[in-house]
Design a protein that fits this description.
heterodimer, A: 109 residues, mainly alpha, 3 helices, 78% helix, 0% strand, rod-shaped, B: 250 residues, two-stranded antiparallel sheet, 4 strands
Amino acid sequence: MSPEPDDLGALGKRLDEARRREAGKQVQVAPTPMGIAFRFATEMVTALLVGGGLGYGLDWLFGTKPIFIVVMFMLGAAAGIRNVMRAAKELNEQAASGANVPAVKDDED
Amino acid sequence: MKINPMEQFTVTPIVPLHIGAYDVSFTNQALWMCVVVVAASLFMTIAATSRRLVPTRMQSIAELSYEFVANMIQSAAGDEGMRFFPFVFTLFMFVLFSNFFGLIPGAFTVTSQIAVTLSLAGLVILTVIVTGFARHGIGFLKLFVPKAPFVLLFLLVPIELISFLTRPISLSVRLFANMLAGHTMLKVFAGFVIALGGAGGVLSALSIAPMFLIVAVSALEMLVAFLQAYVFAILTCIYLSEALHLHEHH
């Protein structure tokens, strides 16, 4: 029972229609709220750790005990905030492209 | 009866082996890594052998995962990023299979070890650095110099540098901590079931409550297992994209 050419044409049309319908709702992996919170927390904490660690290392290297650890820890905090902002921006872009919501214009761009 | 929820993460040697001063024993960790690699390779090979126009279920899953990763790279790093498809796909499949194999009762979760995730993240960052320097030469260092007044650069360059250095660590800690937390939670609830069940009377009947929680948490862990593999892969793509295009920094 081979399909007639007409049947194939109709099937093609139906497939096209179905594809168009499905195109809007592509597989979107939206992170859970807990996932987002977790991501921000790790970004912040690791930046503090890396900053503090670098400071400790530099102090140990130059024998200037408290100076570098204090400075680098603060720089680490700044880097952490930078990371969180960047992560938030990525998430915003993701959400905007996924839900077809017009992206909020970032004044940094 | 004592239940230690952290016991599941201990690495124990199966075949003790020492070379010089180094302990290179074949551990449960190594065993499960082999299982994961073999399973993932076998799955992809078997799924790809049939090559039917109308795919079988297996082939369909393989094609879906191929397209999923390919789309991810395309959207995050563009066409040039496709050169790294084998790398990203391997990473994604390894993490995904490790996470899901870890959910099998009695299995060992490879990705719950910081040593594994940190090695993976280190590999990613090394690839990013090598790609960046290979493509842009010394100009890759511009990644650390944001557009800002000259005076501020003394402050901003160290910040960007630290920010870059945190990447391998946050990448690995996120995966490792998610796996560790999820599996510990499952074991703790399982401990409740046993403790309540052994308490007798009304309390024994109550042990059904944590049992339901375990089912719910297991379902959540399925999601986390996939999501963490996805996050690991997409962040790899984003970092690679930065090394390729050097844009983004404002």
